[in-house]
Amino acid sequence: MTATVTSTSAQPALAGITFPDGFIWGAATASYQIEGAAREDGRGPSIWDTFTRTPGKVYAGHTGDVACDHYHRYVEDVAMMADLGLASYRYSVAWPRIQPDGTGPVNARGLDFYDRLTDALLGKGIDPVVTLYHWDLPQTLEDRGGWAVRETAEAFAEYARIVHGRLGDRVKTWTTLNEPWCSAYLGYASGLHAPGKKDPAATFAAVHHLLLGHGLAARSLRDAGAQSISITLNPNAVSPVDPDSWADREAARVIDGLSNRVFLDPLLRGRYPADMLEHMARFTDLAYIQDGDLKTINAPLDMLGINFYQPTYVYAKPGATGSPDQPGSEGVGYRAPDGPVTDMNWLVEPSSLTRLLKRIHDDYPGTALLITENGAAYPEGPSADGAVHDTRRVEYLDGHLRACHDALAAGVDLRGYFVWSLMDNFEWAEGYAKRFGIVHVDYSTQQRTLKDSAKWYRDVIRRNGIADPGESEG
Questions:
Q1: Residue 217 pLDDT
Q2: Residues with catalytic annotation?
Q3: Binding residue ranges for substrate
Q4: DSSP state at residue 43
Q5: Residue ranges in the chain whose pLDDT is less than 70
Q6: Angle 114-115-119 (CA atoms, 0-180°, nearest 5)?
Q7: Could you tell me the CATH superfamily of domain 17-466?
Q8: C-alpha to C-alpha distance for 37 and 427, rounded to whole angstroms
Q9: Predicted TM-score of the model (pTM)
Q10: Are the beta carbons of 222 and 176 closer than 8 angstroms?
């Protein structure tokens, strides 16, 4: 949090590196972003179905109705994963496919799809990692208060039990939530994501009920015999612009608390940070935090998933209104990227990933980590030769894998790496305007084309590392 500010872009490979035996190589996707089939086989509406139909919320009015049509093309997609040599595939289950209203009757046809997908993966020697919630809350639950109310956390535990009941004999690794920061802050504070609310009190209630939902689901999964349980966060590699400035360090403390410690401390220490309780109390009376909740949230974790894309640099800026997705961040300024950026205008700085992993390792010892998402959006499409030459993505991935290797060398217990994303997809509020995939998708034909980054990643997997520059890769 107080590291010296340096902006180091991803560099071409300078030397070969090898990862530990058993290091997990995977790729990740999310249900609403790739599946399509939004109204098929009994699937109910999610908050994203509603949000995408709200004028002005999503780029060009795009929806996930078809997306990558993975629901119908999963066999082809699994074969593609096998060709890449993936050891593991992280997919998410769409809650509205399983319980269209979020509670009540189970939709067997929805479970059937994930049954088929799981078997297809195992048939190709690919280990499924299941994420139970990647933002597509059933609309009926949102109508009853969404994550701002306790009922949703309780319903989530029941949903987890149902999915495990069908897939638990074959799925070893279960992730409860993906990026609860986004669900709470983008969904209920800035309104940039579904359900599009702008209510700080609801934001912090959502933080707590998402964490409680994780804890209740983890208990349900553990009781049912789940082998490995995790949650995925998107911790912020936040640093003060001037580490020697008390005011800048104080700005970083606030953003670190809102982004990181409000999630990490309850999960791994069984308590909220005192400064964050005081911060949250500015907006709500915290009556929703009940006796026993923090013990439930502090359920033992087998792994902590880390999603990482860019660092954040902050400074004291008296009079600043703060960020709409960080309630209470008045007086904090954000430094604009001062180096190479992705198509999302996100700073490329691999060294900040090493710094973040070491910080979590040091502050929360004994926690096994897994990179569950890392990648970059770049717009390159097929060239005249039919190939997709996404050199900048290769450089980005190269730099961040080297950052992971540096963390391992520093003693961090890092178990694996999942690239985001397997293929171009519906990128939430950005619609189809941003492409994160290592596989190009032509949305008009649904044709998949391996980008150069996919071929490079296939070679990384085969080698269990990155080749020396003089070696051929292919």
A1: 99
A2: 179, 373
A3: 33, 134, 178, 309, 420, 427-428
A4: P
A5: 1-14, 471-474
A6: 110
A7: Glycosidases (3.20.20.80)
A8: 17
A9: 0.96
A10: no
